[in-house]
Each structure stands twice: as structure tokens, then as C-alpha cells.
Specification:
Organism: Clunio marinus
Catalytic activity: 3-oxopropanoate + NAD(+) + CoA + H2O = hydrogencarbonate + acetyl-CoA + NADH + H(+); 2-methyl-3-oxopropanoate + NAD(+) + CoA + H2O = propanoyl-CoA + hydrogencarbonate + NADH + H(+)
Strand order of the largest sheet: 14-15-16-13-12-18-19
Strand content: 15-25%
Number of strands: 22
Oligomer: single chain
Shape: globular
Bound molecules: nicotinamide-adenine-dinucleotide
Subunit structure: Homotetramer.
Function: Probable malonate and methylmalonate semialdehyde dehydrogenase involved in the catabolism of valine, thymine, and compounds catabolized by way of beta-alanine, including uracil and cytidine.
Distance between the termini: 61 Å
Number of helices: 18
GO molecular function: methylmalonate-semialdehyde dehydrogenase (acylating, NAD) activity
């Protein structure tokens, strides 16, 4: 029961897979239902972004270890794909209870490895949990189609069947949510799944494996391997892996899409973004400015749906000084500290990149009206902190506009009219998300109709759809045909078998063989 799962007993189980004590431990693989040490000689140090101290070391798994994961997945597929759909549903029902009861434990691990604030880390878990909850409805979601009497005594029906072994490659910015976009959908459809979490924060994935085991999921149904490029290449090339789900940067996403597709796999690839918020002068000023600041600087801007670009239309430009005031009030610090709004960015390299993009804006003529580059956080001087930063007078030709900054930096553009704003957004190669802030329904409607972006918010700054829909980024932000979760997620992880059957009491049909197509 939920009560039993929330007890100390489960908390102890959780601690076993991943040791968060001060002695730098190593991260284990999860193969065939067991947490195993890698025998590799190559390790990646994982640093706490708030201190840059080494928290743990992540193995670059050996080829044999990755092969063992595939073997385990293949073996498990034989039985798992034949279990009743109710059995798979039960695993999801239990998993959702366990995750809910242990949200805070997961969030603590996320803050330690990834840096985001504890409350935000709980949001990371919750948004993944909602996918698990959606999977609990698999009994309706995986139904096929039927059509009786398509000819005399003949019926056609289709089954929606699993593919086999699937794989997921995840980014650092949502260590719980994104693995949960992948393996729950894959396995409730009857597939097995190999997850290669981000080498920068794999802890949440391993905690989820403890929970999945506790939920009664058999060994081999999900395996976890670690590494960087070599493990990605292994997944792209392995003939027994049928489908790859990827979320991360453009560079990796395009590469994985091309390499995976070339090897005949199904690939869905969610990539980078540059999300614009259009501020109309008739918007609710107070709500809009709060939403802009939250969506630009929350999670230190390291969300693929962060509103990293604001377009102020006409008179709305006069609100910028007030936006600066609100942004300047946000508290920068380590994610575990109560009251902190903006945690560190993932690495010193990420910080350097962010600062250099800000500088490029200044060099190209933008105005730096809020400068978070030299923010100091007492007792955490070594952390990768960047304070909220705002650049105005930015033009679409500038590097700080063209590149995804992925930090707490808001670039502001101006437009004379809504048409001008729409034109700017539609010319941008990315299509992940966008939002308009207005109190005028006709303005909102025009924006929704004319904007060429896959996820649109009207007075909603980060319009990520709940899992009964799909995550529908478009253009440069997504390569593939079926999106993550929702009906499209089920479609991605399944194939259709269509059966046409003829059952007749007596054979009255033909006296001789028919060699031409029926007319
Ligand atoms: P990343 O591409 O560096 O890493 C993602 C995964 O790819 C990791 O598992 C990593 O090991 C692997 N990888 C990295 N570089 C590779 C390469 N050159 N070849 C093969 N594999 C490689 O991404 P990240 O920095 O962890 O995540 C941030 C990025 O992810 C941002 O661009 C963000 O917009 C994007 N993102 C997109 C979405 C979305 O849904 N569109 C969601 C979250 C994050």
C-alpha cells in the first residue's frame, strides 16, 4: 500500500542504489535487475554545480557491459511482451504511488547533481510522474481497430504491438522527467528499454530503477548503461535496438537521428530551442512581468521551454525597467537552500559559454541592463552561478539571439506590430514553444493561427502540454514523426499488425484458383 511504500524501509532501499555521502562513490549500472559496478577504466567525474566538488564518478561502460544490457533486454522482451496488459498496467499503478511517496528523495538527488532548487526539482519529478499516470490508462491507449464484414465472411482487425528493445538517451536538465518520458511509455506498451542517462546527473534514473523494481517490474525490462559518445554510438548501431528516443542539444540530436535512421531505426529527437514571449501593451502587466521573469530565469534558464527571448510590441517596451526590478530581486544560490530562486548552471564550461554569449551581445550593440555575470554567492564562491541577466535592443542578426544561451539570460527585442513579432518568430529556425501575453482575444487568436511553432501559450509562459497530449515542438526543435508521450508516444513505441480473416462454414467460394485481383 501507499502507506507501506512511504516508510523508512523504502527510503533505505533508495539509498542503496546511490550513495549520496561525502565519500565520492561510483555510479552503478542497472543490468538484468541488479545494480552492478562497471569494470571500465574510464570514469567521468560528476561535480555538484553549487560547489564543484566531486559528488560521484560515472563509468563509461565497456562494450561487453552494453552488450550484456542488450542481451538482458532481448531476453526480457520474450516474456514481458507476452504479459497481460493488466500486469503492465499494475506495474505503472504501483510505480506512480512509489514515485509520489518519494518525490522529495528524488528531488534531493537532483539538486545535488544538477543544481536546480529543491522545489523546482520536485516539479521535475512531478512532470515525469504525470507520464507514469498517463501510462496507467494503457488499456485504452493501446487498442487496435476492427472492421467486420469488409467482404463476405471476412473481417479485418489490427493489433498495436511493441517493437522490441528500445533505447533512450537523456539530457542533464531534467534528470527525472525525461527518463520518465521514455521508459514508462516504452514498457507499458510491452517493449523493453535501455536508458543511457546524461553522464552529468544519472542518479535520478537509478533511483527510479529502485522504484521500478519495488513496483514489481521484472529484471531486464529496463536496463541502464552509462557513458558519453561511445555508448551513444553503440545504441545507434546495435542491430537489436529498434527505436531511439533522444532529448538534448542540436549537435547530438541531429547526429543521433541521422546515425539511427541510417541503421533502420525509428528515432524521435527533441532538440534545442529559442522560445519567444510576445508582450502586447494590453496585457495584464503585473501577471505578465512575473511570468516572464519566472519563465526566463527559473531553473537558471536551463529549460528547453524557458522563455529566453521577449518581444515587446509597441508601448509594452516601457515595462522593461519594471521587469529588471523583478529579475534583480530573484535570489541566486545553491538549490538546497530555502528561498533560493536561481541555482547554479551545470558546469564551469556552461557558465563560460553563457558569459561569452552575453559579451557577444554587448559587442554587437545590445544594452546590458541587468548584469548577473559577477554575482557572488557567499560560502559558494566556487559554484557556477550566473545571476539574472537582461539584454535589450537585441537584433535577430546578433549571435546572442541566434544561439540558444541555456542560462539565466533574457534577450529583449522590440517590434512595432504583432505582425512584425510573428515574422521574427517564424523566421527563427526553432519551433519548440512560444507565448503571447494579451487581454485581447482577437490578438491571441491571430497569434495562434499565424505562428509556426509547435507549442503555443496564451498568457501561459511555458506551454508544456500534459501527457494526455504530446510534447509537440516543431521545425528545428524536433526531428522525427511521432512526438513524446500522449497518443503519439504510444504510436512511436508500437507497430501495427493488421489481420484479415475469412471464416466460412462450407467452401462454396471457388471451384478453381483465382489468379486475378478481385474486382
Ligand atoms: P547534450 O546533447 O549535450 O546531451 C544529451 C545526451 O546526448 C547525453 O546523454 C549525452 O551523453 C549525449 N551526447 C552529448 N553530446 C553528444 C555527441 N556529440 N554525440 C553523441 N552523443 C552526445 O544536451 P544537454 O546539454 O545534456 O541538454 C541541454 C540541451 O537539451 C539543450 O539544447 C536543451 O534545449 C535541450 N533539451 C531539449 C528538450 C526538448 O524537449 N526539446 C528538453 C530538454 C532539453
Amino acid at each position: 500500500s501507499l502507506f507501506r511504500l512511504a516508510t523508512a524501509e523504502v527510503r533505505n532501499i533508495l539509498k542503496r542504489s546511490y550513495n549520496t555521502s561525502n565519500v565520492a562513490p561510483t555510479v552503478k549500472m542497472f543490468i538484468d535487475g541488479k545494480f552492478v559496478d562497471s569494470t571500465t577504466k574510464e570514469w567521468i567525474d560528476l561535480h555538484d554545480p553549487a560547489t564543484n566538488e566531486v559528488v560521484t564518478r560515472v563509468p563509461k561502460c565497456t562494450n561487453d557491459e552494453m552488450e550484456a544490457a542488450v542481451e538482458s533486454s532481448k531476453r526480457a522482451f520474450k516474456t514481458w511482451s507476452q504479459t497481460s496488459i493488466l500486469t503492465r498496467q499494475q506495474v505503472m499503478l504501483r510505480l506512480q504511488q512509489i514515485i509520489r511517496a518519494n518525490m522529495s528523495e528524488l528531488a534531493k538527488n537532483i539538486t545535488k547533481e544538477q543544481g536546480k532548487t529543491h522545489v523546482d526539482a520536485e516539479g521535475d519529478v512531478l512532470r515525469g510522474l504525470q507520464v507514469v499516470e498517463h501510462c496507467c490508462g494503457i488499456t485504452s491507449l493501446q487498442m487496435g481497430e476492427t472492421m467486420p464484414n469488409i467482404a463476405k465472411d471476412m473481417d479485418t482487425y489490427s493489433y498495436t504491438l511493441p517493437l522490441g528493445v528500445t533505447a533512450g538517451i537523456t539530457p542533464f536538465n531534467f534528470p527525472a522527467m525525461i527518463p520518465l518520458w521514455m521508459f514508462p511509455v516504452a514498457i507499458t506498451c510491452g517493449n523493453t528499454s535501455i536508458i543511457k542517462p546524461s553522464e552529468r546527473d544519472p542518479g535520478a534514473t537509478l533511483l527510479l530503477m529502485e522504484m521500478l523494481t519495488e513496483a514489481g517490474c521484472p529484471p531486464g525490462v529496463v536496463n541502464v548503461i552509462h557513458g558519453a559518445h561511445d555508448s551513444v554510438n553503440f545504441i545507434c548501431d546495435h542491430p537489436d535496438i529498434r527505436a531511439i528516443s533522444f532529448v538534448g542539444s542540436d549537435q547530438a540530436g541531429k547526429y543521433i537521428y541521422e546515425r539511427g535512421c541510417k541503421n533502420g531505426k525509428r528515432v524521435q529527437s527533441n532538440m534545442g530551442a529559442k522560445n519567444h514571449g510576445v508582450v502586447m501593451a494590453d496585457a495584464n502587466k503585473n501577471a505578465t512581468l512575473n511570468q516572464l521573469a519566472g519563465a526566463a530565469f527559473g531553473a537558471a534558464g536551463q529549460r528547453c521551454m524557458a522563455l529566453s527571448t521577449a518581444i515587446f510590441v509597441g508601448e509594452a517596451r516601457a515595462w522593461i525597467p519594471e521587469l529588471v526590478e523583478r529579475a534583480a530581486k530573484l535570489r541566486v544560490g545553491p538549490g538546497h537552500m530555502p528561498g533560493v530562486d536561481v541555482g547554479p548552471v551545470i558546469s564551469p564550461q556552461a557558465k563560460e559559454r553563457i558569459l561569452s554569449l552575453v559579451q557577444s551581445g554587448v559587442d554587437e550593440g545590445a544594452k546590458l541592463i541587468l548584469d548577473g555575470r559577477n554575482v557572488k554567492v557567499e560560502k559558494f564562491e566556487k559554484g557556477n552561478f550566473v545571476g539574472p541577466t537582461i539584454l535589450t535592443d537585441v537584433l535577430p542578426s546578433m549571435k546572442c539571439y541566434k544561439e540558444e544561451i541555456f542560462g539565466p539570460v533574457l534577450v529583449c527585442l522590440s517590434a512595432e506590430t504583432l505582425d512584425n513579432a510573428i515574422e521574427i518568430i517564424n523566421k527563427n529556425p526553432y519551433g519548440n514553444g512560444t507565448a503571447i501575453f494579451t487581454t485581447n482575444g482577437a490578438t491571441a487568436r491571430k497569434f495562434v493561427n499565424e505562428i509556426d511553432v509547435g507549442q503555443v501559450g496564451v498568457n501561459v509562459p511555458i506551454p508544456v502540454p500534459l501527457p494526455m497530449f504530446s510534447f509537440t515542438g516543431s521545425r528545428g526543435s524536433f526531428w522525427g514523426s511521432e512526438h513524446f508521450y500522449g497518443k503519439q508516444g504510444i504510436k512511436f513505441y508500437t507497430q501495427t499488425k493488421t489481420v484479415t480473416q475469412l471464416w466460412r462454414d462450407t467452401d462454396v467460394s471457388h471451384t478453381q484458383a483465382a489468379v486475378s485481383m478481385p474486382t
